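Title: Prediction job returns without error message
Component: structure pipeline
Severity: low
Priority: P3
Assignee: unassigned

Description:
Job completed but the reporter wants confirmation the result is attached to the right record. Sequence as submitted:
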Amino acid sequence: MSQTSQLIDHTLLAPTATAGQIDTLVQEAVDHQFKTVCVNPTWVSRAHRAAEGTPVGICTVIGFPLGASTTAVKAFETTDAIANGADEVDMVINVGWALAGAWDDVEADIRAVVEAAAESPVLVKVILETCLLTAEQTAEASRRAVAAGADFVKTSTGFSKHGATVEAVRIMRETVGPDLGVKASGGVRTPEDLAAMVDAGASRVGASAGAAILAGSAQ
C-alpha cells in the first residue's frame, strides 16, 4: 500500500455515471489501494457492496454540487448515505450564506451534518467551493467548519469555476492547524499537481486521474 495511493479519493461524480462505471471505479481503487471511492449518493450501496472485504472506503457527497439544499435535507441525506454504507461524507456549504456574511447559518448547516454522522464513525468533510470565495472568506469558512466539529475542509466540488489551488489549500491549512484534514479536489491530474497540493498542506486529494497520477509517480 503506497503512501501516495492512500492520499487519493478515487472520484466519479459525473451525472452520466453508470453502474458499470461505478464497478470499474471500485475495482481500480482496490487494485491501486486508494483510500476511498467518491460517488454520488445513488451509487453508495452499490459501491459498498463492490468494496466489501477490501480496505477501500466509500465516500459520498451531500448537498452537491450547489450547497443550496436546506439544512434538514442535508442532514437526512447524510443519514441515508450512512445507512447505505458511506464511510465519509463531503458536504457543500451554502455559498450564498458565506458571501452574505451569514456565518452562524453556515456553521449551523455544517453542524447539522456533523450531528447526523455522530453516531457512526463517519468522517465529515466540508466543501468550501473556494473559487467563489475570497481569501478571507475561505479562512472564515474553515474556522466555522472547525467550530462545527468537522473532520476535514475541502476546496472544491469540481463543478464550479475551477478546482483546487495551492493558495486556497495553504490558507485552509494555516487556518485549521495541523490536526484537521485538508482535501484538495478538482484539477489534480499529475504527480506534480498532487505534490504541490501536499506541499501546501493537503492531507487528501480528490481525483478522477488517480491511476495516471500513480503511473507518473512510478516513472
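Comment from assignee: result matches the submitted record. The chain has a mean pLDDT of 96.
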